[in-house]
Each structure stands twice: as C-alpha cells, then as structure tokens.
C-alpha cells in the first residue's frame, strides 16, 4: 500500500522566530501606509490569507477595504519574505529530528512525501530552501494557502495532484498529515487524512489528543518509529 505523507512546515519542520511577523508588518505598511500595532497570534496554523484578514481587522482597517488590502498584502508576502532569506538561513531553526525524519520518509519506497501548509507555495519554498529541507518533499504535489484559504481543502488538492502524477488515488485511509497544531488536526479530520501530531509548537500533547489526533509524538527524533506509525495508520 502506498501512502501520501503531507508535512506541515512551521514548528513541525522548522521555526523562523519573528521573521513571519516582521514580513506581515512590512507588507501591511507597504499597502496600508501605516504601522500595524497588533500582529497575528503565533503558532495557530491558520492560512496566510486568513491571518492577513485578521491583521487588517485587528488594526482597524475599514471593513469595506479589508478584501482589497488583503489581496494586495498576500501578493507581497513571498517577495517580502525573500528579502529576509539571509535572516532565515542565519536565525531559522530546523526542528529536532526533522532532517532524519524527512529523509526516512523520502527514502521509503511505499511513501510519497509532500506538503500541506498555511504558507503560500512561494513562501513555503523559500523557507524550506533556506534551511536545506526542500529536497525531501515533492513541492508540486502539495496543498498551499495560495490554492485555498480554507485549510482542509488542501488535503484534497494534494491528493488530486499526486493522483494525476502517479495514477494512484489517495483517500483518508492512505493519507497522513504530520503537524503540530489544532489546525493540522482539523485539516486532516475534515480534509480526509490520518493525523500524526508533534508536540513541538504552542499546543500541548494532551490538547492535540483532545483535538482528535490519531498519534502524538514529543519530537521527530525517532524516524523508524515515525515510519512504523505512518504504516500502522494507513494499513488499518
């Protein structure tokens, strides 16, 4: 049985500190013409377009202008992030065990690794490339916030892209999301995937279990154990 493995990025594979929030501030200033005093919450897992709308509303942008400004800000985010590529390399952190876990999944002949993330595709590529992780996932097969602001939609998008490439239909029994937040759990349960969570973000292991995760790990330091859990979930 071949399984599709969809990795979340932020706080699951890597952590970029306040760089994302700085990028939001810069793009907000570019478009709105003033500083944003209230920034998106950390580690929520919401898609970038939704985070931008929350940013605009929290900073008292008139409701009639939110959608127009949101589109303009979202368009600017990848280019703004790219200007911080050296900061990503210098200050970004690869999560413990992430390289070994990514490599193990990538090398497994019965697993197809890609991405489901709240990042726009271009932003995801910039982060993964800056921290030398991009070679472990098949970027074109993934689901991104640039495809849909509603995160559960991204599972079906990734499944369809993978089916078109490989001629294999994936469903909730043969797809696994690996993430760190409640949003990752919701994405899997509503979108059609099993969910392995890593308690490496802002959400505790107990909270992740209560949200409905099928499995919760403390970190990614046991790649063989991760492979066993993926195969157990997709062989049920």
UniProtKB/TrEMBL annotation:
SUPFAM superfamilies: HAD-like. One of its GO terms (cellular component) is cytosol. Transmembrane segments: none annotated. One of its GO terms (molecular function) is phosphoglycolate phosphatase activity. Pfam families: HAD (PF12710). It comes from the Bacteria. One of its GO terms (biological process) is DNA repair. The keyword Acetylation does not apply. This is Haloacid dehalogenase-like hydrolase. PANTHER family: PHOSPHOGLYCOLATE PHOSPHATASE, PHOSPHONOACETALDEHYDE HYDROLASE. Keywords: Hydrolase, Plasmid. The lineage of its organism: Bacteria, Bacillati, Actinomycetota, Actinomycetes, Kitasatosporales.
């Amino acid at each position: 049985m071949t399984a599709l493995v969809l990795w979340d990025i932020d706080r699951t594979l890597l952590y970029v500190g306040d760089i994302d929030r700085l990028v939001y501030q810069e793009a907000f200033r570019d478009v709105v013409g003033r500083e944003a005093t209230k920034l998106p919450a950390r580690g929520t897992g919401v898609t970038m377009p939704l985070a931008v709308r929350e940013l605009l509303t929290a900073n008292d942008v008139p409701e009639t202008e939110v959608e127009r400004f949101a589109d303009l800000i979202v368009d600017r985010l990848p280019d703004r992030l790219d200007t911080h590529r050296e900061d990503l390399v210098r200050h970004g952190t690869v999560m413990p065990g992430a390289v070994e876990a990514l490599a193990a999944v990538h090398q497994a002949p019965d697993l197809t690794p890609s991405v489901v993330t709240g990042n726009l595709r271009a932003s995801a590529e910039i982060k993964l490339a800056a921290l030398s992780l991009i070679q472990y996932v098949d970027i074109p097969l993934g689901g991104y916030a640039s495809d849909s602001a509603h995160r559960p939609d991204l599972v079906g998008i990734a499944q369809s892209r993978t089916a078109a490439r490989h001629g294999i239909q994936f469903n909730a029994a043969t797809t696994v999301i690996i993430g760190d937040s409640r949003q990752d759990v919701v994405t899997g349960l509503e979108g059609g995937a099993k969910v392995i969570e890593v308690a490496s973000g802002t959400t505790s292991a107990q909270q992740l279990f209560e949200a409905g995760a099928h499995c919760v790990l403390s970190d990614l330091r046991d790649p063989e154990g991760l492979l066993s859990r993926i195969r157990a979930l997709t062989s049920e």
